């Protein structure tokens, strides 16, 4: 009898990842934008470091040691403008700014329970972000310069991997790496002819979730 009770208690103690959850997250962000134009001295990759933070929510299903689910998040990005170019004291030359304000994702994730309380997983899906970009150009022969601007949402994709640890029946901690890649930004008429910005973002995030 005592053995049966002990066995039942051990089975009850096995953690079940199935269910919904909400959480808060924050961490490090590395922004990279590949720039190109018809004629420019500043084509190539321009980078900046910052931070991000926000919320996430999802739902998991468990089948044996395998866990699969859906998750979405929204993060504000704290990062000063990425600036590059060169303009002389007469205002002649080329100059560019680029910034990302927020990012959001809708993803699938699939993982394996290395232990009852430790889940390792891969994830991927769609991403959206709000960006701002400007292009200024004044050739040496031109009497005035011109500027083109973009401010809006771009979509793209996101992939990554992470690990989550169950602290208690209703709480868990996660660490996660995500790589985002977005559609090309073209500010439009004005500025440097053919100017385009191709954004990407790498993040390392930590979060705590309440699981229902």
TrEMBL record:
It is found in: Cell outer membrane. It comes from the Bacteria. Keywords: Cell outer membrane, Membrane, Signal. Belongs to the Omp25/RopB family. This is Outer membrane beta-barrel protein. The keyword Membrane applies. The keyword Signal applies. Residues 8-212 form the Outer membrane protein beta-barrel domain.
């Amino acid at each position: 009898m005592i053995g049966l009770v002990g066995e039942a208690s051990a089975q009850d103690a096995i953690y079940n990842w199935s269910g919904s959850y909400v959480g808060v997250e924050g961490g490090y962000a590395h922004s990279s934008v590949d720039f190109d134009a018809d004629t420019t001295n500043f084509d190539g990759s321009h980078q900046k470091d910052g931070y991000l933070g926000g919320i996430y929510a999802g739902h998991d299903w468990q089948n044996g040691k395998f866990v699969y689910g859906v998750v979405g998040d929204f993060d504000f990005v704290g990062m000063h403008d990425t600036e590059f170019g060169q303009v002389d004291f007469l205002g002649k030359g080329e100059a560019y700014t680029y910034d990302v304000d927020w990012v959001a994702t809708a993803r699938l994730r699939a993982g394996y329970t290395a232990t009852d309380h430790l889940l390792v997983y891969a994830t991927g899906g769609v991403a959206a972000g709000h960006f701002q970009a400007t292009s200024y150009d004044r050739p040496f022969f031109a009497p005035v310069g011109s500027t083109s601007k973009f401010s809006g949402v771009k979509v793209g994709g996101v992939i990554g991997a992470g690990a989550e640890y169950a602290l208690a029946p209703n709480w868990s901690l996660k660490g996660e790496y995500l790589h985002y890649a977005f559609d090309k930004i073209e500010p439009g008429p004005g500025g440097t002819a053919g100017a385009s910005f191709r954004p990407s973002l790498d993040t390392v995030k930590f979060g705590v979730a309440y699981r229902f």
